[in-house]
Amino acid sequence: MKMTTALLAAASLVAIATPVAAQDEAPFSGLRVGAEAGYDMLRSGSSATTDTTRNLDQSIDGVNYAAVVGYDAAVGEKLRIGAEASFGDSTAKWRDSSPRPTVFNLGRVEAQREIYVGGRVGYVTSPDLMFYAKAGYTNQRFGLEGSDGTASASQRLDTDGYRLGAGAEYAFSGNVYGGLEYRYSNYRKGEFDFNGTTPDSSRFDIDTDRHQVVATVGVRF
Q1: Virtual CA dihedral for 8, 11, 15, 21, nearest 10 degrees?
Q2: Under 8 Å between Cβ of 147 and 139
Q3: 7-21: buried (b, 16+ CB within 10 Å) or exposed (e) per residue?
Q4: pLDDT tens, residue by residue, 95-126
């Protein structure tokens, strides 16, 4: 249900923005679509209790990549207010072939699809450069595999939380733009998404932190 709501919000964003985009010619405004890729690191949150007597690896990292759609409206000459949605994936994972144990205590952990819907506020410092801050809702799916030494089982864990971020965007010639962004996410709730007809589990508390640094490139319309 959470994923469906997020996707509907993204679709609504495009539908609302499209007829307005052609009328707005201010720098860093209008409808935009793009792609992003960069470093991705997830780890147990600050409130998690870990065994400090062992050399536990408390994080997984890899490359994050996503498609992004958004709309920014000009509010005066310098201020921009916008909304955006993204759908992405990550190569971050851990498997039990590693010689170093992890705090996850599972045979396999891998980050899978990620959905984000949120807003941002930007400030244009020149016709070619804008700085911005963002915040919104994020839903992350993990693939998990557990084993008792004889049998193993794979399940999906859906988690949701919030994302905060900041970055800079540069306008190249034509309608092409690029940028660099840092964001922090924290996942506070989770539920197991079982295969087949088995109902999903009840939601439970978690604490997982995420740090990402991504480069963006896209086109404005």
Answers
A1: 140
A2: no
A3: eebbeebeeebeeeb
A4: 655 555 454 444 577 888 999 999 999 999 99
